[in-house]
Amino acid sequence: MVLKRIFDVLSATTAFLLGTPVILGTALVVKNKLGSPVIFKQTRPGQNGKPFDLYKFRTMTDELDEKGELLPDSVRLTKTGKILRKLSVDELPQLINVVKGDMSLVGPRPLLMEYVELYDDRQIKRLDVKPGITGWAQVNGRNNLSWEERFELDVWYVEHQSFMLDMKILYMTLQKVVKSEGVSQPGQATMEKFTGSSKAETV
Question: Is 130 helix (H, G, I), strand (E, B) or coil?
């Protein structure tokens, strides 16, 4: 969709420029509280499963256990990180992903590469479009949803996507950000790991 791409580039560029003070301020806070690197980079599946590097402000430490493996997210997620996530400012570097064409402002959230082979024939349709900074699942429950509910909302978006729907989602996103709703699952610091439909286990 040409209109969607034009809107993405213009909006992301404008948001980045206007948000520069917030972005620089956040970078300084992360540098002071968590050290380097300030930006967390991870390979995620894009449209049609094509890998790309997703950018976020770092919110966790790199603490390891006695076996040299990373500690659980709930342990590594810092107080500063929780605040950044609650305010959703940790997602701001993804504006760069949008300008680059890896992502759209609106679309299914890009998850882990290891999840792709676990999707069923319907769930994998979420990869038919570019992933987004926000999406239909994010404004309808976000991390309070089960994986199955979340994926069904993603596929619904793919099947009903339109420019007006994107505008609605962006408006609803602003409301969610202001209210800080659905940032994490009840009783969990982060979303549970997806291991296949109806087989989620805590990270």
Answer: coil
